[in-house]
């Protein structure tokens, strides 16, 4: 089955030094690209959720810094000043949405890279800046390649043990496709890979309250790419698994910690419990950049809480009783013991036999 052209949520043009980000708050009824010409623009796009999805957050943040560096006039002449400038901008971008680890990982990696470049005996501000810009521009194609590998590994894991020609139905939550990444997607990339190979019977996506990323964005992508699919309310997942054949649940991740506990959009924890009860394999699909080995377990993950009006109104129209209290966490944590496997671009991490409560991510990532 031929692949349909995927959506382009991030448009970076090296030739004319421009960055445009698809405003996902307008979807599915309006397709609007916002220009990002400064790091402040990138921060605002991330913080306001005009761009969302852990990989896309990092890419937009990093590329907004590229735009600023390439358009800067006059250029920074001192190497120490340039190092300070780049590291401070990266640290600022991390504050836009702290739960998603990809921007933090990019900050650490790029800050280390610029300091190493600055220590070279022949380093100049111009040479350091040019090398850093090239490194940051590489985020976009690297993410697409990683996503396609995730899709392949995830599809193989779900199809393992199936008969030739057998088709599967898969449930996903939130949005993890081209709109959440540089292209192709993580969990939705797994569904896309199953569809491309002719092994997908049907995809189900949740609405993903309170921000409706599932019905606004995932449904939009599924329809756009003509993937057989059905939208359900978040509260229908248990009934779906009971009444219809669901072969796997696959969701994304905003942070995977050392023991395999995984933070993702609010609602994924309950999906992991329901899947376990119904003996449905539950997979996480995420790039290595979403893995945070500095945290031992999910209890250490900072969970972002957002504005009350995201729950009490829809598109500015009030839907809740005035005066009611609101609790609006954006993420929850599925424990490793409920996760069948964590799909990355280098393979699938699983628990060791006899120790199903832990998926040792450090060992999984160690050089083989």
Order of helices and strands: EEEHHHHHHEHEHEHEEEHEEHEEEEEH
The structure class reads alpha/beta
- Low-confidence stretches are 1-5
Please identify, by name, the CATH architecture of the largest domain: 3-Layer(aba) Sandwich
CATH class assignment of the largest domain: Alpha Beta
Description:
- By secondary structure, this protein is α/β, with parallel strands linked by helices.
- The protein has two domains: 10-137, Up-down Bundle (Four Helix Bundle (Hemerythrin (Met), subunit A)); 148-365, Translation initiation factor eif-2b, domain 2 (Rossmann fold, 3-Layer(aba) Sandwich), CATH 3.40.50.
- Helix content is 39%, strand content 16%.
- The chain is built from twelve helices and 16 strands.
- It has helices spanning 39-47, 54-71, 79-94, 101-118, 125-137, 139-159, 187-196, 213-224, 237-243, 268-277, 309-312, 361-365, and strands spanning 10-13, 18-22, 33-35, 168-172, 200-206, 229-232, 248-251, 255-257, 262-265, 282-285, 291-292, 313-314, 317-318, 331-334, 341-344, 347-349.
- The strands form four sheets. A seven-stranded mixed β-sheet has the order 6-5-4-7-10-15-16. It has a four-stranded mixed β-sheet with strand order 11-8-9-14, sandwiched between helices. The protein has a three-stranded antiparallel β-sheet with strand order 1-2-3, covered by helices on one side.
- Helix 2 (54-71) runs parallel beside helix 4, helix 2 packs antiparallel against helix 5 (125-137) and helix 6 (139-159) packs across helix 7.
- The longest helix is centred in the middle third of the chain and has 21 residues, at 139-159.
- The radius of gyration is 21 Å and the shape is globular.
- Residues 1-5 have low confidence and may be disordered.
């Amino acid at each position: 089955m031929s692949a349909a052209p995927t959506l382009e949520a991030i448009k970076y043009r090296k030739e004319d030094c421009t960055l445009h980000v698809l405003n996902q708050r307008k979807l599915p009824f309006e397709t609007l690209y916002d220009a990002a010409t400064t790091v402040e623009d990138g921060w605002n796009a991330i913080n306001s959720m005009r761009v969302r999805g852990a990989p896309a957050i990092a890419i937009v943040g990093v590329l907004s810094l590229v735009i600023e560096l390439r358009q800067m006039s006059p250029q920074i002449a001192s190497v120490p000043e340039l190092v300070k400038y780049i590291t401070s901008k990266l640290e600022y971008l991390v504050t836009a949405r702290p739960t998603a680890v990809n921007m933090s990982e990019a900050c650490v990696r790029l800050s280390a890279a610029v300091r190493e470049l600055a220590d070279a005996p022949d380093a100049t501000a111009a040479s350091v800046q040019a090398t850093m810009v090239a490194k940051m521009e590489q985020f976009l194609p690297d993410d697409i390649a990683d996503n396609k590998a995730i899709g392949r590994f995830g599809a193989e894991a779900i199809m393992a043990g199936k008969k030739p020609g057998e088709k599967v139905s898969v449930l996903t939550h939130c949005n993890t496709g081209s709109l959440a990444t540089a292209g192709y997607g993580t969990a939705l990339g797994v569904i896309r890979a199953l569809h491309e190979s002719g092994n997908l019977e049907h995809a189900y996506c949740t609405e993903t309250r309170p921000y409706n990323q599932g019905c606004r964005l995932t449904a939009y992508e599924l329809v756009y790419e003509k993937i057989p699919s059905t939208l359900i309310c978040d509260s229908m997942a248990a009934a779906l698994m009971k009444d219809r054949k669901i072969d796997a649940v696959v969701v994304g991740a905003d942070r995977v910690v050392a023991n395999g506990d995984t933070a993702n959009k609010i609602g994924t924890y309950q999906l992991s419990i329901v899947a376990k009860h119904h003996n449905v394999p539950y997979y996480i699909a995420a790039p290595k950049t979403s893995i945070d080995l500095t945290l031992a377990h999910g209890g250490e993950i900072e969970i972002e809480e957002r504005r009350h009006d995201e729950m009490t109104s829809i598109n500015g129209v009030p839907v809740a009783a005035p005066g009611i209290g609101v609790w609006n966490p954006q993420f929850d944590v599925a424990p490793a013991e409920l996760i069948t496997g964590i799909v990355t671009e280098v393979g699938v991490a699983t628990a060791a036999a006899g120790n199903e409560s832990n998926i040792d991510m450090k060992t999984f990532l160690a050089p083989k």
